[in-house]
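Homework help thread (please don't just give me the answer)

Our assignment gives two proteins as sequence + structure token strings and asks us to describe the second one. The first is just a warm-up. Here they are:
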Amino acid sequence: MYSHPMHTVKITEVCKSCEIKRSNTDRTAEKLKQALKDIRESVARMEKMQKVVETAETAEVETAKKAEVDTDDDEDLAALESWD
């Protein structure tokens, strides 16, 4: 799995210090992979929550606009009735 930096010679046996370094590198790489996975999941949850909030805000704005239109219609109707 590990090879020479020039990728010409496969290394099957390593000295004790290199083996320790390799295991530390592998452990660090696994920690980083897990951290990136956690971050991706967290971002996905935040994006999902943001969409829910935006949808709720959009619904509130539409409801407010509809209420304004209904109020305007009532005022126009009252103005027309006063002409009678």
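The one we have to describe:
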Amino acid sequence: MKNETHKAGVGIAGVITLIFLVLKLTGLIDCKWSFIVAPLLIAFILRWLIPGITLIAAWCKWRLKK
């Protein structure tokens, strides 16, 4: 029987979003909601953009070898 551990937690983008959310809801900052959720959107885009660029680069390298 394997002992498997899974790490789950809030990343840096989640922490920043939570901080902005609390500050917005308490009235300490006055900014648009798009600014509040921007860290999550940036993290989501980077999560898909970096592997996508890597796959395209690998595919181009493979095509040039043919």
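TA reply:
I won't write it for you, but here's a hint about the kind of observation we're looking for: Residues 12-65 form one domain.
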